Structure formats: structure tokens, C-alpha cells
């Protein structure tokens, strides 16, 4: 099975970069027009990922910054090859409407969309977001959301009456129904989250964690999915920092403050650690680092070729 | 005084001509050798194009001839305007994306965040055409089972919250349909302009909601006296509430160098209609007041195209030729401009125009009709008063 690599385009990172409100002028003659803006930077990160042979982009939901679905569409036509996986909350709106937006996007981009549903936020965040579904129903709401969205894409007429969504005589017609429904990425480590993924996810993305912990999670979800008569692919959202030299890597890691679970090391070391994860059965690698543009080039040029060589060797041996 | 003229992006496919009801631009009708932008080349292979490439061409044509932007309609079988707009954001320069959407389908806080993001992507080129749904089976298709008046109540609350969170942090709201506690857009997003809001709906519930939140009240073209009354009523109601409402008309044009050529086009379109197509045009059940007002014209019962000429240069059979309202303007370039002048004189502050096919007619109307505005006798007399 092939490995899919995604670069994380985090709209909240490098927040001042290309932000017209944060411009500094000086002695240089400044000819930047207001039309030059933050989205030019997003497009640059996307192009960096495309040019260094990532398979896709993952755009985390950042409520204080640009909406991931808008950014995804705004850059889609400038990276004609990449898979695009925006993360959004299941509280975004109607499942039918979300599905309709998804198929419209698929039609215009040759099926390059993935859907990452965000983990349920805490109570205060949900109240701020106008989401008043009770805590204990959040996973059920996500499940209904996906059932309805997939239902109107796959069936016509489609009827559904649940706690959170209701449809009568629904279902898309041609040409909207001709495209594939986006692959669904879910997340979370709780029992409930794993149960939900076993029933509904195409891909489950784990948070980066030590190898033994990830092994346990993979085994648990694999068992749950098998019990549900399904197969779920596994992935990880993995912060990385790689340098030519181990000393440089440690120094730069201490400057940006990475989480404990980040993989820090030489290009070869990072590639090996990723290959160890692949050996657990992980196939979808969302790689992330502060300074999305520079690090995309570094990882894409130096780590991915080594990582691919390692996993191809394993696959060939098997 | 200047008037905003919008064009339309046909998010439902486009006809190459009024004489042909097949959507031969886009992939809504079965692929035929002459189809444009279905994504297939003549050997049945993927040609790399998608329908959005055609919409891009129309948007660029419209902005280049001076249209301020374009309406992107939303129906069950259209491409979605929330997707089309950001897809085209970075390849257009001045074009404003008028997104038609039903507020009930989005969480208002999320919608505000999406909107502010789109404003940032486009340099403030987002406009909304808020629609509240026609009721009947179509609302249930969308997963919306609210009654007509509840939908307008929900629209009002949606816009309360949408604008409320845009005011910045610390916003709370406790409504029937929406509750927010200590919400609000981040300063990064909140500093964008709130998109202009265009509102449709002819019922009293709609007018109440419009009076509170709309910048423009948008109507289909109706017979001029009827429209004048409607606009007067809307403006009066808003004024009573201490607001000010601008009014806008959405209308299709058939503009040709001579009136004869324009009517010949309409006649050819009418005479090419199949009995089945005429039957379809009778329309389905709806609780929309606007739709009922238009259906009173009964275009599907006409046997000759000229039975549907309801006033000079006004033809009531457009709904037979394509989806949408019945009444449109037909005439020479000068006559079309004069009718638009008359509408301006009667209180119209902005327009959404369209013609078939959308790409070529954007150039024609933009180059031949818009420059003639404000020159007709009636307009000059009115302006002198």
C-alpha cells in the first residue's frame, strides 16, 4: 500500500508573513499593492509542497484565522495535483449543504478534496461558536453528519430523520453526483472517537505519540473496524524538524519550541523514525513544522526521498 | 449618481443560445460534440478543463466591461457559490462575488468566519444574496423542515449573529434559533468589511427581516407599476424602522442592434420549445409569494410568442426558455437602455443583468447597452425634476 504524505498548511503559523496590515517599510522603496496579501503566502506554501512532491496539503481548523475551506478553494487552482484536506468542525452547518459544497469542489478539482472533521472542541469554544449540541451527543452528531452527507451523494431519493439532521426526498442529480465523495479523515484517541472511526472514517489520523502508544491505538482501532466489517486506514499528524546536522536540528528545535512528540534529527534520522511509524501500519503522514514554506522545501527535498526509499525497501522485502 | 450593475455566473450550466434549451456549456445536459467545458475532449478523454473554467471566462468578461460583479445562484443542482467564489478569487481583479445562500444551512458564526476569510482573499469583494427558500419539497431536499415564517425569523436571527460576531469579541446572543456565549471574530477577521447584503422575498415576514438587515432589497422584474409600488412599500417600511433600503432588480435582457432582431431571437426561442418543456415550465408547488406573482403571467399557456408581450420591450416568457423568472427586457440597445433608465427613475438603485449566452452577452450588454444609460428622454426629464 502506498504512503501518502501531506504538508500541513497552518494558517495561524508565521502570522505576520505577507499580512498587509503587518507590513514594515523602511529605506527601501515599497511598491507592494494592497492586492498582495496573505493568500499569496498560502499559495506559496501549497506550491512548495507540490514542487517538493508531497501528495497533499492538510489545513487545520484555526478559529482565530482564515477559514480552512476558503483557503483550500482559493489555492486549489494553483496546485493542480495536490490532494487538499481542510479540517472543519461538524458544527459548520447542514450536512446536505456541506455535501453539496464538497461535490462542487470535487467537480472543479478532479476529486482532490478530503474532509477532516475536527475533534469536538471544549464547552466554552462550542458556546462561542454557537454550537449548543450537548457534550454527550457530539460524536453522534458527527456520525449523523457523515451519514447524511454521504447519503445524499450516494442515493436518490434519500430520507433521513435523526437527532440533528433531517432530509426528505434528498439526493444529488447528475452532474453533481458523478464525482467521488471526499475521503473522510477523523481524529481522536478516546474510546468514543475510535468507535466512531471504526464505523465511519476512511482514514484515522492519530496525534503524534511514542511508538508503543501508537501501536496500541492502531491495534485497538483495527480490531474495532474489523468488528464493524470495515477497514480504516491509519495516519498521524507528526511535527518534524530535520537538519543536515544533528546539532543544528537540536538548536533550531529549541528556538521554535516543538511539542515533546516532535521528531527532531538529521534528515536520515527523521526518515528512519517515519519509516518506523509506517511499519506500524500508518499510511497517511501529515507532516508539520513552523515556517511552513522553508520547512516544506527542506522536508520535501531531503527527508521524503529517504523516507520513500526506506518504505519501498520494506514493501519489496514483504 | 452611479448605479451598480452586476452580471450573473450561471452556476447551473449555460445555453449557447436562447433557441436551444440544452445546456451545451457545462455538463448538465448529456455530452454532445459541441459541448463546452464538460471536461471531455473529442475522443472522450479528460481535457483538463472543468466548468469553473467557463465561469472564470464569464467573470473576467464581466469585470472587463465594467460590471461590478456577478450573482452566483444556488439551487439543488447548481455548483455552490461558496466554492466557486474562492476558486475564482485569485484570478479575478475587480469582480465581486454575490453569493446566493440560505442562511439556515450554515452556522452563523462559521459563516462569518468564512466570509471574513473570503473578504481577505478577495480584498473585500464578497456580497450576499440572502434567500430564505421557496418552501415545498425543495426545502426538505435541503434538509430544512422549517415553516415559511419561521425561516424568515431564523434569517433575521442568523444575520443578528453574523453581524454581532463581526463586531468583535465578547458577543453573546440568546435567540430562538441561535445562541452564542462570549463569541466574536478575532481582530484579524473582524477588521474586514461586512459584505453588502442583498435580500429577496416578497412576503411581510420577508420585508420585516429585510428592513432590519438588508442593504439592498432585490426583486425580479415585475410589471413596472407593480414594481414601483413594491419598492415604495419596501422603502416606506424600512424608513418607518429608521433604516434606509436600496432597491435592486434582477432581469434578463435580449439586446440586439435593432428591435426586430431582438424579437426574432425571442420568437425563435419560443417556437423551438417542445410541449414537454412547456409543461415543465409550469413549475412545482411553492410557498414563495414572488413565484406566485410571476406564475400569474401563465406563460406556459401562450400559443404565440407575442401573446406574452406585456408592455413595450417587456416579454413574459423567459421562464419557458430557461429556469428563473418570466419577465425580461427585449429590444434594441437604445430601448434596453431606456427601459433600464425608466427603472432607475422609478427607484431602482442597482441591477443584476443576464443574457444568453452569458459570456458573449456580458461583452454585448457591457459594451453596447451600459454606455447608453442616462441618455433617454424619460430619464433626462426625470433627472431635471
UniProtKB/TrEMBL annotation, chain A:
Gene3D superfamilies: Luciferase-like domain. The keyword Flavoprotein applies. Pfam families: Bac_luciferase. Keywords: Flavoprotein, FMN, Monooxygenase, Oxidoreductase. GO terms for molecular function: alkanesulfonate monooxygenase activity. Residues 35-253 form the Luciferase-like domain. GO terms for biological process: alkanesulfonate catabolic process. It comes from the Bacteria. This is LLM class flavin-dependent oxidoreductase.
From TrEMBL, chain B:
InterPro entries: Luciferase-like_dom, Luciferase-like_sf, SsuD_RutA_monooxygenase. This is LLM class flavin-dependent oxidoreductase. The lineage of its organism: Bacteria, Pseudomonadati, Pseudomonadota, Alphaproteobacteria, Sphingomonadales. One of its GO terms (biological process) is alkanesulfonate catabolic process. Keywords: Flavoprotein, FMN, Monooxygenase, Oxidoreductase. One of its GO terms (molecular function) is alkanesulfonate monooxygenase activity. Signal peptide: none annotated. It comes from Sphingomonas gei. Residues 52-349 form the Luciferase-like domain.
